[in-house]
What does this fold into?
Amino acid sequence: MPTYILGIESSCDDTSASVLCDGKVLSNLVANQEVHKSYGGVVPELASRAHQQNIIPVVKQAISKANINKNQLNAIAYTRGPGLLGSLLVGSSFSKSLSIGLDIPLIEVNHMQAHLLAHFIDDCGPKPSFPFIGVTISGGHTQIVVVKDYFEIELIGETLDDAIGETFDKCGKMMGLTYPAGAIINEYSNLGDSLKYKFTKPKVGGLNYSFSGLKTAFLRFIEKESKINKDFVQKEINNLCASLQYTIVEILYEKVILSLKQTDISSVVFGGGVSCNSGIITKFKENESLEDYVSYFPKFEYTTDNAAMIAMVGYLKYNNKDFSSIEKGAKARYLY
Ligand code: KG4
Ligand code: ZN
It folds into this structure.
């Protein structure tokens, strides 16, 4: 008998639903929220309201695109956290109600774990073997973890302040780019000189990161140059983006390589919205033989927030009969 899992993701500003059959994606729908663009960042209250509007149509479409009947579903997997509480509440309440209505198990999923385990989705690409170093890089997180098995994950490093995606987004805002700016900076970087402007890298101990100093230095620099030439940012946008991205990639790279050496692990697996950045992919791919590791990047549609990764973890947990109780609440902060 095939196992059908419905995944529901609503941790930030994307409402997503997906149906997987035995780990294969039958549908994966994402409703993005345009409303945040004009605010330069996600407005939590508006995100919750938009999830409320989107969740029923997105789930309906995911089930219909999968060409199944809702009564064929074996379980519902939902994002319990981490994320924005109001956003999580919409997805978790909906999932709980549907699981009661259909009388099928409910499975809670950790969003960050799902970003990494997305690699086990049938069509995500080559599958890493355990143990591996997991690097989650998104708008809200920058973490290095040791993944010994699907559900044996240990945090060994993280950002002490801003997340890597947040750094892209905030620096983008300083340059007048729309939110989220990561992909735009990536695009402009391909046209610029990455060594034109130098920004100092932070000195942080161990495997932790810090990006707030870079963000401030970037702001000071463009403020100073704009006083001399008011069109500085506009004229230099490609070089600014390329130099900023280059610095961010260097900061990320150094600690990841250190983590591989310290743990004696030779595979590194990326997850999260920033893992589609071409500067990051090129840097890690180019240095594989030099530093003796293999790097894994997810297929584009599984990098940003999506419910297929939630359903994938749901499928793995379903096989372990690891079900959740409806008493459990959404968790804004949720470690592995
Ligand atoms: O994982 P995600 O969809 O949502 C969170 O959980 O945060 O990640 C969104 C983040 C945003 O900060 C966005 O600017 C960034 O991913 N991003 C990128 C690129 N595409 C998306 N950052 C750098 N380069 C990209 N190509
Ligand atoms: Zn995410």
About this structure: The mean pLDDT is 96.
